Amino acid sequence: MTRLERGLLAAVVVITVAAGLTRYLPGVSDTAAFVVAALALAGLAWLVAFSTEQVGARFGAPVTGVLQATVGNLPEFFVVLFALRAGELVVAQTAIVGSILVNALLVLGLVIVAGAARAPSGLMRFNPRLPNDTTTLMLSSTLIIVVIALTHVSHDAASRHAKAISIVGAAVLLALYSAWLFRYLRSDEAGQQLAEPPRLPTGLGVVLLVAGGAASAFVSDWFIHALEPTVRSLHISRAFAGLVIVAIAGNAVEHASGVVLAGKGQYELAIAVVKSSVSQLSAFLFPLMVLVSLTTATTLTFSLAPVYAGALFGAAVLVWQVSGDGEAPVWEGLALISAYIVLAVVAGFEG
Question: pTM for this one?
Fold first, then answer.
């Protein structure tokens, strides 16, 4: 590990312990507990992503990207799970939607800006296959969401069966994602090797990964516990808490490595990390949570407010337009970032 990574690891341990203390010590305000828990979530997201990258670094860039996206979504998984158990449906929905939008717009935009600014030609170039596959998976998920949103707006007969439609849609999306993943990992791209060798022994990487995942479960519970009083005291919307605070804490920090890799010229790995996460969230985590929610107090469906259905569809189209040709200049990265900022402002005014 580098000196910076050791320092970050120590900081994650300290902030996680602090989150536990602010949760259980008497006299600590709920707002302080909420802020510290959010910082701890961000730190643990980095730890999970870093340890997964080190464990998967022996398998090549695409496999590492998929593995990092899969395990790296543990903080989001636990936040959504505890939100559903607490009856916080809006937070659960916007946490997933926000995670998709943060990765597809904010993080990808930052990656493109960093990569294109470094490229001599001013264009960040990469293999368009993964971006196009990601867009297909994202649009497949968005189609279900948009259709259900339209049935609710029109109040037709199907609108009364959103739960059943969501269950079928979740099963179909999981099957589709599995088929794509099997094909992708068997492709020629799976043989691409990382530019840098792993910096941790496999055993230590696994230990850090397990510790980070376990700590994410506890911190997510503390975060949701402090959410309700914090929303009241700070006068922020639940939509903003999920779409912005949870999404950025669990994703932007997690994939800061993608921005660093793009700045170093490792464009394929940077794109693989971010795009694999978008695929995972859209076609794996969201449908998985729909099925998992059947065991919780609150049922999650693909029935979202029209504004979020429109945001997901617009984001999918924008991502396809920007990255589908395998090259992107700085201004296209800025376009993605600008779109996320507007959506964050909208979330701030939602209930």
Answer: 0.82
